Amino acid sequence: MLILKNVTFLKNYIGIKLKNNMAKKFNLYCDGVDKTWYDSTNVIYTECIDNENKPKTLKVVFSNGSQYQYKNVDVRDYLLLRESDSQGKALNRLIKEKKYEYEKLENANLDEINEELFFKSNNGFYLENNDEFFEIKNNKDESVFKLSKPLEEDYFDLVNDILKAVGITTKIVN
């Protein structure tokens, strides 16, 4: 309850709307990275690298593909940004105005970001078949099946076809 009161105080104090969060499409935490996709005209994607017990590294991707990486971001600022109704306003108030150190990165591939959203939000499975093993991982990169030897190509194709036939989105990992 104390945390809820502190978040309520913070959102009122800084003037950020958090009530409905219509902007957040999908959020996934996996392997120390919090990934969030937004339905926004400005900020469409963020990645927050969880440096355990330390300030965070935040990558922000804009609708035009430009992306920036902010360093040493306070986790509370990131969470308020992620949960805000307007990521653009929240980014200005919580990140830019606080003058976090940043760098402009190479433009992001928006098609890859959207493809990952589709795959992750539809509970897709990764299929990997290499010289050593065959493995199926879920959309959180957790192994759900592993065979200690590779499948022959025909069997691999059959497994992939069966998964697709029952409505499971698959992605082949090389």
Summarize the biggest pleated sheet.
Answer: 6 strands, antiparallel
Number of strands: 10
- Radius of gyration, Cα only, in angstroms? 19 Å
**How many distinct domains?**
2
Quaternary status of these chains? single chain
Strand order of the largest sheet: 1-2-3-4-5-6
How would you spell out the order of helices and strands? HEEEEEHHEHEEEHE
- Globular, elongated, flat, extended or rod-shaped: what is the shape? elongated
Question: How would you describe the overall organization of this protein?
Answer:
- The chain has five helices and ten strands, in the order αβββββααβαβββαβ.
- It is an alpha+beta fold and 174 residues long.
- It folds into two domains: 2-108, no CATH class; 122-173, no CATH class.
- Strand 3 and strand 4 (56-62) form a beta hairpin.
- The longest helix has 13 residues, at 2-14.
- It is elongated.
- The N and C termini lie far apart (47 Å).
Summarize the model shown:
This protein has 174 residues and is of the alpha+beta class. The chain contains 5 helices and 10 strands.
Fold blueprint:
Elements: H1 2-14, E1 24-30, E2 33-38, E3 43-49, E4 56-62, E5 67-73, H2 75-83, H3 87-96, E6 102-105, H4 110-121, E7 125-129, E8 134-137, E9 143-147, H5 153-165, E10 170-173
Parallel strand pairs: 7-10
Antiparallel strand pairs: 1-2, 2-3, 3-4, 4-5, 5-6, 7-8, 8-9
Helix pairs in contact: 2-3
